[in-house]
Amino acid sequence: MSLEKLDKKLISASENGQTISPILAEGVKNYLIDIDGTICDDIPNEEPERMLTAGVYPDALITLNKWYDEGHIICFFTSRTEEHRDYTETWLKQHGFKYHSMVMGKPRGGNYHWVDNHLVKATRFRGKFTDLVEKEAVIQVFDDEHHV
Fold first, then answer.
1. Exposure string over 48-72, b if 16+ CB within 10 A, otherwise e
2. Tens of pLDDT along 87-137?
3. Partners of 77 in beta bridges
4. Spatial CA neighbour of 103 closest among 88, 119, 118, 115
5. pTM
6. CA-CA distances (angstroms) from residue 47 to 53, 104, 113, 139?
7. d(CA 145, CA 16)
8. pLDDT, tens digit (0-9, with 9 covering 90-100), for 12-21
9. Helix (H, G, I), strand (E, B) or coil at 6
């Protein structure tokens, strides 16, 4: 899907009479997917020669391509650096991954705490891709009582 078609999935939004960043149409998700250890073998940046031969996780390929075909947005968000982009794009194409974009240079080390003005949902990968299911969990959030 082209970037122009992706833009058509955006809906204008406003708050207090002011235009704000657009939001996605209902039911469309922006999936930010890690690469190493999530869709393939975990390859450190220090060993880029292994990136072209990483073993693919078949359930990741099937699930991500299904989400893509359903109209969701797939963006790979990886700790690999820009110098690894060509290897990474070659590997993704070789294995048939469908995606819209890729962001390189995610901070390494995990323990991510994403702060954003848009809705953010996080799903920790634990070895198998499936369709998502709903579960209740305890999460950390900002104290709304001090909202400006």
1. beebeebebbeebbebbeebbeeeb
2. 999 999 999 999 999 999 999 988 888 777 777 777 777 778 788 788 887
3. 103
4. 88
5. 0.82
6. 11, 16, 27, 35
7. 19
8. 888 899 998 8
9. helix
